[in-house]
Design brief:
Blueprint (H helix, E strand, L loop, with lengths): L4 E3 L4 H8 L4 E4 L5 H6 L7 E4 L9 E3 L4 E5 L4 H7 L5 H7 L5 H6 L2 H7 L6 H8 L2 E4 L3 E3 H4 L14 E7 L3 E8 L6 E10 L2 E7 L7 E2 L1 H9 L24 H18 L1
Parallel strand pairs: 1-3, 2-3
Antiparallel strand pairs: 4-5, 5-8, 6-7, 6-8, 9-10, 10-11, 11-12
Helix pairs in contact: 3-4
Length: 262
């Protein structure tokens, strides 16, 4: 690692101030950042830990019936405390990584990194959630802007995410066994005004909505409604774990499974 200073603010205001320093880097659970530092691929002047800010932790329901989760809330907390309000989201969180990852990794850290194979981006996009920062609120459809790319400005911090709770939802993940990331993951969420389907792990552009499946399922919420539908393999990731065609096939398979499990 390179040498760096370490700050652990106790309020969002102090965190924003610390992040204004040149080359400062926010630190959530560190599940991605710490390995990056160890490989000397990043050299922040200051690491600003967000794990000691009470106002960025915890889960509650707001007056609009949305499940509100603090940006510094761990996957394990979402799994344990979110089950009563949004079972599909809690179940997804309970299968992220291993126990060490779930007890250190945070919702905000996952979304800020926007790994193309991470689980939370699919849940946020499928839920039509709102990402709240220290400066503004960002709709999920506007937040994700490509692989490892988001709408966040420099120094902007995710303080909370607001999830509209669907009538029915399910997440299905085909696990890459070494990393436990999604080789392909599909989150399906059914609302009164339609169905949203978000796919992670598959596309070269990161998480995306499968609009054809959404249209079909909004008319007929059954696995059979997906007959004959497929995603374009030319935009899928190809690597040693699977060809683009294989991932495209898995998208259809996992979407069917998610619908059947709702």
């Amino acid at each position: 690692m390179y040498n760096f200073d370490f700050a652990k603010p106790s309020t969002i205001a102090d965190a924003v101030k610390a992040m204004s320093e040149e080359d400062a880097q926010a630190l959530g659970g560190g599940q991605t950042l710490i390995p990056t530092l160890k490989q000397r691929l990043a050299a922040p002047s200051t690491l600003v830990s967000l794990t000691g800010i009470p106002e960025m932790q915890g889960i509650c329901m707001d007056d609009a019936g949305r499940l509100c989760i603090g940006g510094a809330t761990t996957h394990a907390t979402v799994a344990a405390e979110g089950a009563a309000h949004y079972p599909a989201l809690a179940a997804m969180a309970s299968h992220i990584g291993d126990p060490a990852v779930r007890n250190r990794g945070t919702l905000g850290g996952s979304l800020a990194n926007n790994d193309p194979s991470a689980c939370y981006p699919a849940a946020v996009l499928a839920s039509g959630a709102t990402v709240v920062t220290n400066a503004r609120e960002i709709a999920a459809d506007d937040y994700f802007q490509g692989m490892f790319t988001t709408a966040l400005d420099e120094g902007e911090i995710i303080t909370e995410v607001k999830f509209p709770v669907p009538e029915a939802a399910n997440y299905q993940k085909f696990v890459q066994p070494a990393s436990r990331f999604a080789l392909v993951g599909v989150f399906v969420a059914k609302y009164a005004d339609g169905v949203r389907v978000a796919v992670t792990g598959a596309s070269e552009d990161g998480v995306f909505r499968w609009s054809e499946a959404e249209e079909a399922l909004s008319s007929d919420f059954s696995a059979g409604a997906l007959d004959g539908l497929s995603v374009d393999a030319s935009t899928m990731i190809g690597d040693l774990h699977g060809t683009p065609e294989y991932r495209a096939h898995l998208v259809s398979v996992m979407t069917r499974r998610a619908v059947a499990a709702c």
